[in-house]
Amino acid sequence: MTIKELIKLIDGKALNLPKNIKKEIKSFRLNSKEVEKDDVFICINNGYLYIDDAINNGAVCIISDRDIHIKSEVCILKVTDIKDTLLKITGYIRDKYKYIPLIAITGSVGKTTTKELLDHILSSKYKVLKNDGNKNNYIGISETMFKLNNDYDVVILEVGMNHFGEIDEISKAIKPEIATITNIGTSHIGYLGSVKNILKAKMEIVNGMHNGDLVVPYLDKLLKHIKYDNINKCRDVKISNIKVTDKLNFDLKYQEDKYNISFNIPNKSYISNILVAFELSTYFVIHPKDVVERINSYEAVASRMNIIDMVDYKIIDDTYNSSYESLKGVLDYVKKIKGNKLVILGDIKELGEYSPRIHKKINKLLKNVDKDDILLVGEDTKYIDGIHFIDNDDIINYLNKINLKDYTILVKGSRLMHMEDIVNSLIK
Fold first, then answer.
1. Which residues constitute the domain of residue 71?
2. C-alpha of 171 from chain center
3. pLDDT tens string for the chain (428 positions)?
4. Same domain, 202 and 292
5. With CB atoms counted within 10 Å of each terminal CB, which end of the chain scores lower, N or C?
6. Are residues 130 and 260 in the same domain?
C-alpha cells in the first residue's frame, strides 16, 4: 500500500503531505519503540506524545485524531475516529491475504485457553499467527493483523466484547472462514441484561463470515439449540467417562476410534473448549491421534488455573479473571482435594443488578469449605460467607501470620481485583 492509497482508504485529512505520496508503506505500528523505516505510526490513547520517537525511528507517516503541527517531511494524517481507522486497515490487510484461513474464537469463558490450545495443535504442522495474551479488542486484533504476511498458514483470533456491536465490527473487518463460540455464561451480564442477549452478542461473530462454518459445542445448553446455515455442533465427537484427578480425564470418540484425554488443567469446564479445539483441528488435515497428543501435552496459560507447588503448600492461581461458571469449575476440583484448603476470592465484576444473586449462589459452591478458610475481598463478596478483608494487602498481612503448611490455596477474582498480588506474595 502507498501513502496515497492509505489516505483514500481511511479518508484522512493530510496536515502535512510528503512529495512522494506513492511511497510504499512497510508496516503499521501502535508502539513508537517498534517503528522502523517506512512504517506508519498510529496514535492510540496518548500515542501523540511519542510522535517524535516514531519519526526518529523512521516513520513515513503519522495517523492521529488530533491536530499535529510539527516541522517534518513526514506525512501527517488526521482522522475522525481511530477505531474506524484501525478496522479499515485491518480489513484491507485481511482482503490482501484472503487466501489464508482465519479462525475467530469468542465465548463467555475459556476463549484464551481455546485459542492457545488450538495454536498448540495447529503449530505442529503450520505457521500460526495469533493475538497474544488477552489482546482481543479492536486494538489488539488490529495490531495482530498488521503482522500478517505470506509466511503464515493460518490466523487464530480471540475476539472479546462487553457490549453489543463490538464483535460485529471486528468480524466484518477480519472476515473469518471459521468462527466458534466456546460457551455462553453470565460474563458481562451487567452490560447486556440477560444470557439471551449475551448469546445474541456472541452470534455477531458470524456477521463478517461468508459461507463459512460456525463451530459450537453441543454440550452448551444454549448453543446446542441455535440455528445457522453452516453450523457444526461437534456431534461427530462424543465425550464419556469424565474423571477429575490431578488432571481432567475423559474418553473422546471420533470416527469409531476412542482416545483418552488427560488434560493438564483439572477443571470440567474446559471440556467444551477441548471439544471445540479438536473439532476445529479436523479442518486442517491433522491425524486425530496427533491432535490428542497435542491436547495432552498442553500446559496451562499463566494465571488460568495454574497449579504452583511450593515447598510447604500448593497454590491454584486462577487470577486472570472470574465468572460464576469458571469459579464453579475450579471449586469442583478443589472440593475433591484432600487435606487443608484455603479459598481466597475477589469480586466477579460486570454483573450489574445480577451481582447480589450470583454472589449469593457461590455459597452453595463453598458448602464443603470451612467458613474460616474462605477469605474474601471486594464490595460484592459481602454476599459470600467467610472472613472479609479491606483489600489485598489486608489479606497478605493475614496470610503472613498463619501457618499454611500442607494447604492448597485457591486464589481467584476478576481482573480489576488484581488478585495476582496475593499469588505473588505467596510465591515470595
1. 3-79
2. 15
3. 999 999 999 998 988 887 788 889 999 999 999 999 999 999 999 999 999 999 999 999 999 999 988 878 899 999 999 999 999 999 999 999 999 999 999 999 889 999 999 999 999 999 999 999 889 999 999 999 999 999 999 999 999 999 999 999 999 999 999 999 999 999 889 999 999 999 999 999 999 999 999 999 999 999 999 999 999 999 999 999 999 988 999 999 999 999 999 999 999 989 999 999 999 999 999 999 999 999 999 998 888 899 999 999 999 999 999 999 999 999 999 988 889 999 999 999 999 999 999 999 999 999 989 999 999 999 999 999 999 999 999 999 999 999 999 999 999 999 999 999 999 999 98
4. yes
5. C
6. yes
Tell me the three state secondary structure of residue 274.
Answer: helix
CA distance 377 to 412: 11
pTM of this structure? 0.91
For 319-344, b where at least 16 C-beta lie within 10 A, e where not — what string? bbbbbbbbbbbbbebbeeeeeebbbb
Q: Which residue has the cell 491432535?
A: 291
Do 263 and 141 fall within a single domain? yes
**202 and 326, same domain (yes or no):** no
Using the 3D structure, point to which of 263, 297, 331 is the last residue of a domain: 297
Same domain, 148 and 245: yes
In contact, 239 and 255? CB cutoff 8 Å: no
Residue 313 sits in the same domain as residue 334: yes
- Indicate if 119 and 148 belong to the same structural domain: yes
Q: Are residues 38 and 62 in the same domain?
A: yes
Q: Contact at 8 Å (CB) between 252 and 261? A: yes
CA 412/CA 393 separation, integer angstroms: 15
Q: What are phi and psi of 381, to 5 degrees?
A: -75, 0
Query: In the numeric block, which cell numbers belong to residue 7?
Result: 489516505
